[in-house]
Design a protein that fits this description.
heterotrimer, A mainly alpha (about 325), B mainly alpha (about 300), C alpha/beta (about 400), A: about 325 residues, mainly alpha, two-stranded antiparallel sheet, 12 helices, globular, C: about 400 residues, alpha/beta, five-stranded parallel sheet, four-stranded parallel sheet, 15 strands
């Protein structure tokens, strides 16, 4: 029923659309790896990035080369704010993971409401038209968005990996993700590393949102849905494994699109959630299995979550 | 009065849900947020049994409780292999998967929802009578769960929550405790679902999504986790607050977003300025287990 | 820790006091507004559906204001109470509960299928008239004695669309529909009606309401080689689907339904919008001078055209419809209850409304109404024909 051209087309488009998924997944996975948080505030950062860009381009008529950097700055400011006035306080208090989850979730919800109030709930794109011209390469339609998006996404990913591998601060981040207490003993300032991580994650999410917002319509709630996909990719890729998250994001985008050839489209969403459930149960940690603590900051136990119970040994509780 | 009855019925159902959710997430420390999935299971089983197969409603409700119990235990057998964050994500996967299933099956009415569910007791005893029944159930649930957490079994639960390794080394099997906790709490949620279905007589799969989990979680946390009264207070407060705002007669363009902003802002405020909830943890049984000074640590006001 | 129990009690008391206060406020409000005709409006002000809800409420408020400015109903003012449903059944139930039991309205207007269905038992039990304006799931006509609609259900406009398309020689069709209630039930109507006419459905593909890419379903439709492709999607995703269809080389006629008929659709697609055919269930500004004036009012007061213009026209007209019923009962000296409202509405049957024209509300809970077919031509919406029912 399906010829080679159709299959090639699906593969190409899914790889192209995976560009923003890759960025969202990397952002989510990075915060999880270094800061040990399921950072659902990422949705708030994504929304702010998009709406700043949209506001500057469409409402103020500013050119894109001003609007996009400005939107990136807005996203970074919000990330900074969330880290300094949110995460770092929660971390100091050693609150339960559950509280952090509620905090991040509520911040993203609050942003949805604030943006609805400011911009309304009609759906928008960054530029007025969302239609991109198409070039035919053989039988495959390649839109004007596809290749720049891929370059930006994978370029950003390459810079991130190089930064973590070769730069001093990147190595600090890796050290803190491995063992924050030990890293601190070696003189690494944890607070700065956590802040830097959240800023980088915010930048990745913002860039992803620019790509998304040039091709599809965004409502205040859109970023929440996009982030769920990032969560799935991060889990499947393996918590703490950035490259795994990247591969998983591309893989999921392809599977979701290609599965329509075999599975009726109603069941696609079910498929994603079933994969999520099965992966985490039977392959916890995805590609590999790092230890990951439930308590914000301390990372010794998986079982404990008592806020008040001194379940962890005293040595790890000491700040 | 009728207005109050319907508000009370909805409140009572949320009290049942929040209390049983606290039992899982607070008392037993199992971070599963899929509680609405079991609420949905109970609601759909009872509604489908009564609507499509003509099962008498009390029997349908009983069936809902049994099926929810079985479903929760069967899904927990593999799921409880993991704990902490992993369990939370697995529970999200299960919950969203179940919603997709409900949307795509014919018997559930699909994404358009199930309407025409037969009503229970209301024709005989009216909304006021039903509200009384719901609240009697809610109080019974709160008392039973309170009794369990204060019994020897409750002490075993908190011991397991606080130190699973030590618990296991004493020769107890944590898996059995967890299964029993999830099974019981889910059966209660399933019962709440049946109460909901036969009063409101319509439901759709999207009602039971992650937002519902967040709402329950907020009730438990704002009210006070690991207390008997906390979830009750949280449920009452968070159900009534949005209602109260509608009476302020604000212009519609402000009313909608404002409601959301106040709601989320309140929760965030609580988290930072009163992080342990409105109702403090009950020291009676906590104190027996560990030294008290540790409880002071989180009460410092921040920023 | 000794303070623990006292704290509980205080907190519970204050929660109780807050609730008591809200009740008192509600009661006071109900008493203060005697001598008016009161009705309710429950629409989504928040949540993903608010993009329509907010403008529809604005339209209804203008309707009420214009009626009152013109002397009201037999000299009495119309009073509309607006509540948020978030398009969520639970929130909707609580909103209707307030309208029915606190504000004691005999009639209220609402929309969105899930809310309409969830609230139907409340309306029927309390014998309050529920008028649905905008939701179009065909099952709405079967929700009980007190649930009526002033808006044509999905079968009306889709059958009109198909009649035209079939007449234009389109014999095979592909359908892409969003996997929610509106999408599923409308797609079924389209399929069954087209098959009954003698057409053939060659592709029938659902997509997820949260999908961000549609290549798979589109390529399936492309592979089917259908004469035309119908999209029953959401307002937010349909433009992107059409953009992707054009990018993937689909040249066939694309059709959709009335939700897509708005100016922004053409803006966001540019040339890719050319040729798209949609239905419209209300006269457009080009046809009706009143509607043109109404659109100008939007531009003047809000700086833009309304989202989902035809829906807002229905909402502007809804208070007129309600006012006609109040007027009849008031003239006849009949007590105003949900039951008498319902009977009076069926007795009047044919309503002539300012922005949507004539509509017949039938005892079988459906309505009769002509359908405009609109097509994008040269970057503008143009009416190609009107199909009577």
């Amino acid at each position: 029923m399906f010829d080679l051209a159709t299959i090639m087309q699906i593969l190409w488009t899914s790889v192209a659309t995976s560009s923003y998924y890759v960025l969202f997944a990397l952002s989510f996975a990075l915060a999880l790896k270094v800061n040990k948080v399921f950072n659902f505030t990422q949705a708030a950062v994504m929304s702010v990035a998009f709406y700043t860009a949209y506001g500057c381009v469409q409402l103020l008529d500013w050119p894109a080369f001003i609007a996009l950097p400005l939107a990136l700055v807005a996203a970074l400011v919000l990330s900074w704010f969330i880290e300094v006035f949110g995460f770092s306080i929660l971390r100091e208090r050693k609150v339960e993971m559950l509280f952090v989850f509620i905090f991040t979730f509520m911040v993203s919800q609050l942003t949805v409401y604030l943006i609805s109030l400011a911009f309304g709930t009609w759906s928008h794109t960054i530029f007025q038209s969302m239609f991109w011209p198409v070039t035919l390469v053989g039988p495959i339609a390649i839109s004007g968005w596809d290749i720049p998006a891929l370059v930006v996404a994978f370029g950003s990913a390459a810079i991130l990996f190089a930064f973590l591998r070769f730069s001093r601060w990147g190595q600090f981040m890796v050290a803190v993700s491995d063992n924050p207490d030990l890293a601190e003993l070696y003189g690494i300032e944890k607070r700065k590393v956590y802040l830097l991580t959240i800023l980088i994650a915010g930048a990745l999410a913002a860039i992803g949102m620019f790509l998304y917002g040039m091709r599809a319509q965004v409502q205040p709630r859109t970023s929440l849905d996009l982030m769920l996909f990032a969560t799935v990719a991060t889990i499947i890729g393996g918590i703490g494994n950035l490259f795994g998250a990247l591969i998983a994001a591309v893989g999921l985008a392809v599977i979701q699109n290609a599965s329509i050839l075999f599975i009726s489209s109603e069941w696609q969403a079910f498929l994603v959630y079933a994969i999520l459930f099965a992966t985490i149960i039977f392959l916890p940690g995805g590609l590999r299995m790092p230890k990951f603590g439930t308590r914000f900051e301390t990372k010794t136990r998986e079982i404990s979550l008592a806020e008040e119970t001194p379940s962890a040994p005293p040595s790890t509780r000491a700040e | 009065m009728e207005y109050l009855y319907i508000v009370m019925i909805s409140l009572g159902i949320y009290v049942i849900l929040a209390s049983s959710f606290n039992f899982v997430i607070g008392e037993a420390g199992l971070i599963s947020i899929a509680h609405p999935a079991f609420f949905a299971t109970g609601a759909y089983v009872s509604a489908i049994a009564a609507l499509r197969y003509g099962v008498p409603i009390p029997l349908a409700m009983l069936l809902a409780v049994v099926v929810t119990f079985l479903v929760s235990v069967i899904i927990s057998l593999p799921a409880l292999r993991v704990s902490g964050d992993y369990l939370m994500i697995a529970s999200i996967g299960f919950q969203l998967g179940l919603i997709e299933l409900l949307k795509n099956l014919a018997i559930t009415g699909g994404a358009g929802g199930l309407s025409g569910i037969p009503s229970f007791l209301v024709p005989q005893i009216g909304n006021g009578g039903y509200a009384a029944v719901v609240w009697a159930c809610a109080i019974a649930v709160v008392l039973v769960l309170r009794y369990i957490t204060r019994s020897d079994y409750g002490r075993a639960m908190s011991a397991m929550r606080d130190d699973e390794l030590a618990f296991a080394s004493l020769g107890r099997n944590p898996m059995w405790v967890k299964l029993w906790v999830i099974g019981l709490a889910s059966a209660i949620a399933g019962f709440a679902g049946a109460l909901y279905a036969h009063f409101f007589r319509f439901m759709e799969p999207d009602q039971f999504d992650v937002l519902q989990s967040a709402a329950l979680l907020t009730m438990v946390v704002v009210g006070g986790m690991r207390t008997s009264l906390g979830p009750v207070v949280g449920a009452v407060l968070l159900q009534i607050l949005p209602q109260a705002i509608t009476f302020l007669n604000l212009p519609p363009s402000v009313l909608g977003p404002l409601q959301g902003i106040l709601f989320t802002g309140l929760v965030l405020g609580f988290m930072f300025f009163r992080p342990r909830g409105i109702v403090r943890m009950d020291p009676v049984w906590k104190g027996a287990l560990q030294d008290a000074p540790a409880s002071g640590g989180t009460h410092v006001r921040g920023a | 820790m000794v303070t623990f129990s006292r704290l509980n009690r205080r907190q519970i008391l204050s929660a109780g006091a807050a609730f008591g206060a809200t009740m008192a406020m509600g009661g006071g409000q109900a008493g203060a507004q005697a001598g008016t005709f009161r009705f309710g409006l429950a629409m989504p002000l928040t949540g993903p559906q608010a993009l329509y809800g907010a403008d529809q409420i604005q339209a209804a408020q203008w309707g009420v204001a214009d009626i009152n400015a013109a002397g009201g109903v037999n000299g009495k003012k119309l009073d509309m109470i607006v509540l948020d449903t978030q398009a969520d059944p639970n929130v909707g139930i609580q909103a209707m509960n307030r309208l029915i039991n606190v504000d004691k309205v005999p009639v209220y207007i609402t929309a969105w299928s899930a809310v309409v269905k969830a609230a139907a038992p409340l309306a029927n039990d309390s014998k309050t008239l529920q008028i649905v304006v905008g939701a179009n799931a065909p099952s709405i006509s079967k929700l009980g004695d007190y649930v009526y609609t002033s808006y044509p259900l999905a079968d009306v406009d889709l059958i009109a669309l198909l009649k035209y398309m079939y007449g234009e020689g389109k014999k095979t069709a592909g359908v892409l529909y969003v996997n929610n209630e509106t999408g599923i039930s409308a797609a079924e109507i389209y399929r069954d009606a087209f098959t009954a006419m003698g057409g053939k459905i060659v592709a029938y593909e659902a997509f997820d309401p949260k999908a961000t890419d549609f290549t798979g379903p589109i390529l399936k439709a492309r592979a089917s080689g259908a004469d035309m492709i119908h999209i029953q999607g959401q307002v937010s995703d349909t433009p992107q689907i059409i953009a992707q269809m054009r990018q993937l080389g689909i040249k066939q006629t694309i059709s959709s339904y009335s939700a897509i008929f708005h100016p922004k659709f053409i803006q966001s697609l540019g040339a890719a919008a050319e040729g798209v055919v949609v239905t419209s269930l209300a006269p457009s500004p080009e046809v009706s001078a009143d509607v043109a004036k109404y659109v100008q009012r939007w531009v003047k007061e809000k700086g833009r055209e309304p989202n989902g213009l035809p829906y807002t026209q229905y909402l502007y007209d809804a208070p007129y419809l309600v006012a006609k019923i109040f007027e009849k009962l008031d003239k006849d000296g009949t007590a105003i209850t949900g039951t008498s409202m319902r009977q009076a509405m069926l007795d009047i049957k044919t309503f002539h409304l300012p922005l949507t024209g004539q509509v017949d509300i039938l005892p079988d809970h459906t309505v009769k109404k002509p359908v405009d077919l609109m097509q994008v031509k040269g970057g503008k919406w143009e009416r190609i024909t009107t199909i009577g029912t």
